[in-house]
Specification:
This protein has about 120 residues and is mainly β. The protein is built from no helices and 11 strands.
């Protein structure tokens, strides 16, 4: 199995910044993408940002494009999400997940709360 642990969540005022980190450990399973997702109360989970572990290509939802940046440090098995110009509508639990050779988004972290007021 692969374990994913998120950190870096917290409370911030609108316009502020936070940086989330996702550290992977466990079996060395071939991972193709690592993504950040979020789920706000009463809403469906949505994809926020994804990074291709091979070439580093990135993808963003329209709601965060230009404000969030996903990056990876393969040596540290870490994927980060830099969130700038935060808005109250960014408030949610943020999860990282890995898309692996097992198929689909196979592994998920436990989530970290981000609150923007």
């Amino acid at each position: 199995d692969v374990q994913l642990v998120e950190s870096g969540g917290g409370s911030v005022q609108a316009g502020g910044s936070l940086k989330l980190s996702c550290v992977a450990s466990g079996n060395n399973i071939r991972t193709y993408f690592v993504g950040w997702f979020r789920q706000a109360p009463g809403k469906e989970r949505e994809g926020v940002a994804t990074i291709y572990t091979g070439g580093g290509s990135t993808f963003y939802s329209d709601s965060v494009k230009g404000r969030f940046a996903i990056s990876r440090d393969n040596a540290k098995n870490t994927v980060s999400l830099q969130m700038n110009s935060l808005k109250p509508e960014d408030t949610a639990v943020y999860y990282c997940a890995s898309h692996t050779v097992v198929g689909g988004w196979s592994y998920w972290g436990q989530g970290t709360q981000v609150t923007v007021s």
